Amino acid sequence: MSGGLLDAVGARQGIVAFVGAGGKKTTLYALAAEHPGRLGITTTTLTPRFPRRAGAHPVVDDTPDLAPQVAAAARTHRRVAFARTSTKSGRVGGIDAALVGACHAAARFEATYVKADGARMRAIKAPAPDEPAIPDDTDTVVFLVSAAAFGAPLDERIAHRPERLAAVTGIATGDTIDATAVSRLLASPAGALQRVPADARLVIVINAVDDDAREAQARSAAHAALAATSRIERVVLTSHRRGAPWIEVIDRA
């Protein structure tokens, strides 16, 4: 199936939190580029500064109540990216998850995209016990994993916190990450389901499905995860190298 990423993920409205590894920022900004309406972009964790390609007016401030500033910016800018300051060069700090909803409502955004955890540029991760920082009023959680993980040994080069991933998937450090291991991550309460609000949609994105071998593994993982839990609404396979982007949606059938 091919079509718009915005509708494949279902990210036109509400608060959308991006978690996991292997393409959070790529997917978030690709969705932002497609979104035709009033859009907020923010983070609840330390992250690189918002890129110019996002086309968003930045509001970076440590004022306790950021909502009035975000609302004021939204009156003259269709897209607003908001965060806290950071002492780390080239970074912005995350806002409190509880503040996201207030900013979203005050600015009357159609959607607010939230980067809700970090992965240190790895392809796959399982969250730490205190992660991710998903706002309680999130409407959609998008959990990402990169298909680059398929066939790779479980170690720190491919996984963020490999010991956490080992505990969730049941494979040992050094073992090959396969579709079964990924499906366990996607269906686990300690994996993709961790801290997802009860009323939120959960959409899985398997990114970097750049060739036929990765596609076969991604499909296998998707079908197994959907069979293992009713909590996942759909799995979206994507590649930003095979098209603009290439997309396949695997729905619950």
Write down how many β-strands occur, each being a DSSP E stretch of 2 or more residues.
13
Percent of residues in β-strands: 15-25%
Amino- and carboxy-terminal Cα gap: 15 Å
- Sketch the topology as an H/E string, one letter per element: HEHEEEHEEHEEEEHHEHEE
Task: Please provide a brief summary of the model.
This protein is an alpha/beta fold and about 250 residues long. The protein contains seven helices and 13 strands.
Describe the structure.
The structure is a single chain. This protein is α/β, with parallel strands linked by helices. It folds into two domains: 1-37 and 111-253; 38-109, no CATH class. Helices cover 27% and strands 24% of the residues. It has seven helices and 13 strands. The chain has helices at residues 5-9, 24-34, 67-74, 97-107, 162-169, 179-187, 212-228; strands at residues 14-20, 39-43, 47-48, 57-60, 79-83, 91-92, 111-115, 124-125, 140-146, 159-160, 201-207, 234-239, 246-251. The strands form three sheets. Strands 4-5-2-7-1-9-11-12-13 form a nine-stranded mixed β-sheet, with helices on both faces. The protein has a two-stranded antiparallel sheet with strand order 3-6. It has a two-stranded parallel ribbon with strand order 8-10. Strand 12 and strand 13 (246-251) form a beta hairpin.
